[in-house]
Design brief:
This protein is of the alpha/beta class. The protein is built from two helices and four strands; from the N terminus they run E-H-E-E-H-E. The protein is elongated.
Length: about 120
């Protein structure tokens, strides 16, 4: 936790590698100081078939899945930072966006939580 899922058009990979994009999202998330560095997970989905309105233009969108409990200002800063940093990395891409999806603490569970000594904490 958190999980950052990046959707992007395939042609972006002609300009930037998957590793560059993943690293930028990771660095942006760390810079917000909302998460522990070792807890951040980033994945990328590449799309060949898509549309952006009535054209086919390159895009990047980051779905930020985080545990509930952050303020609206913190969440807004997270999406701002993600978009700003990706726009700096990829100035040629017009469609860059991000949003936050919150996990409910009461319904979230993972394998680490099976350990009786596990204690959840936030930075």
């Amino acid at each position: 936790m958190p999980h950052f899922i990046i959707d992007c058009s395939k042609d972006i990979l002609k300009l930037h590698s998957q590793d560059e994009i993943i690293q930028q999202v990771n660095l942006s998330a760390i810079s917000t100081k909302l998460f522990y560095k070792n807890d951040i997970k980033v994945r990328i989905n590449i799309f060949d078939k898509y549309s952006t309105g009535d054209k086919k233009e390159n895009f990047i969108h980051v779905f930020s899945n985080i545990m509930e409990g952050r303020t609206m200002e913190q969440k807004a800063n997270l999406t701002y930072k993600l978009v700003k940093d990706l726009a700096s990395l990829c100035p040629e891409i017009v469609h860059i966006g991000a949003n936050v999806i919150e996990f409910e603490r009461a319904s979230y569970f993972n394998k680490n939580m099976l350990d009786p000594n596990y204690k959840f904490s936030m930075p």
